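Journal club side-thread
Mid-discussion, someone asked how the predicted structure for our own chain would compare to the paper's figures. Pasting it here so we can look after the session.
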Amino acid sequence: MPLSEHEQRQLDQIERALYAEDPKFAHAVRSTNPQAHYRRRIVKAGLGFVLGVFALMAGLVVNVMPITIVISLAGFLLMVFCCVWALSSWKRMTGAGNEPETPRTRSGRSARSGFMDRIEERWRRRAEGE
């Protein structure tokens, strides 16, 4: 939803006041892009995944049985953790999955809104003393 002209002017005024008060902080806040942060997290997760693959392979090369299992398991868990971390960062970066799913009725309206409308109507009638 776009801002009205008045709200946009107020926002510009607040921004100018922030720059006047603390220009270093204002520049740091303005130049920070959340997508760049999530992109860095995805790259770090990718590097961690590759490290997990190497640990898994190293565990297979070592011939001492308890150490083999521990190294291989640690590598596998690192790979799983990095995959989850990368996927959660990807979802936040793209905004996927933020829309809540509500069941729809035949008319296309949300079934939840009809229920809430009925509850609100009952509450209103009760408050009026009917």
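Post-session note: The chain has five helices and no strands.
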